[in-house]
Write a structure and sequence with these properties.
Blueprint lengths: L1 E5 L16 E5 L21 E6 L5 E6 L3 E6 L5 E6 L4 E7 L4 E6 L3 E6 L5 E6 L13 H7 L1
Antiparallel strand pairs: 1-2, 3-4, 4-5, 5-6, 7-8, 8-9, 9-10
């Protein structure tokens, strides 16, 4: 706590006393909240990232971008692990940590399943047109196993 006393430059006349008028202001100076670490994208990443998803523990992140790539990044160190080239813009990505893979959706209408450990494309699904949203949903059996 900080106390500041201020004396005005012009003191109003006081018929009962000749002491200057003072104002006391009390301010609380608490410390700002602790900052969380910020990670920058590795050098060479695209200027526009359209999709980003990470494993629940943040150890692996996948981003899709305007330079026709999906990048796997170590989310704790911020280092680039793999770049997967696509024929067009990668609009979105979704990570499924329990399956150790990520899905990428490209302007070419294909969804690719990319293994996070081997960095290989496991499967390619043709959606027929550009896909702009992906989401993994756990089945009831998977949810019960994790509890």
């Amino acid at each position: 706590t900080h106390t500041h006393t201020r004396t005005p430059t012009h003191t109003p006349p006081n018929p009962h006393t000749h002491t200057p008028h003072t104002t006391t202001t009390t301010m609380s100076t608490s410390a700002p909240p602790a900052e969380k670490p910020v990670r920058s994208l590795p050098t060479g990443c695209a200027s526009i990232v359209f999709g980003l998803d990470c494993t629940p523990d943040g150890s692996c992140c996948v981003l899709g971008s305007d330079d026709n790539t999906a990048r796997i990044v170590d989310g704790l160190q911020g280092t680039l692990l793999h770049t997967e080239q696509h024929p067009n813009v990668v609009h979105c990505v979704a990570v499924c940590a329990s399956a150790n893979c990520a899905a990428t959706a490209c302007e070419d209408g294909k969804v690719r399943l990319l293994r996070l450990d081997t960095h290989t494309v496991e499967a390619e699904l043709d959606a027929g047109s550009a896909v702009f949203s992906l989401q993994y949903v756990q089945s009831g059996a998977q949810q019960q196993q994790q509890q």
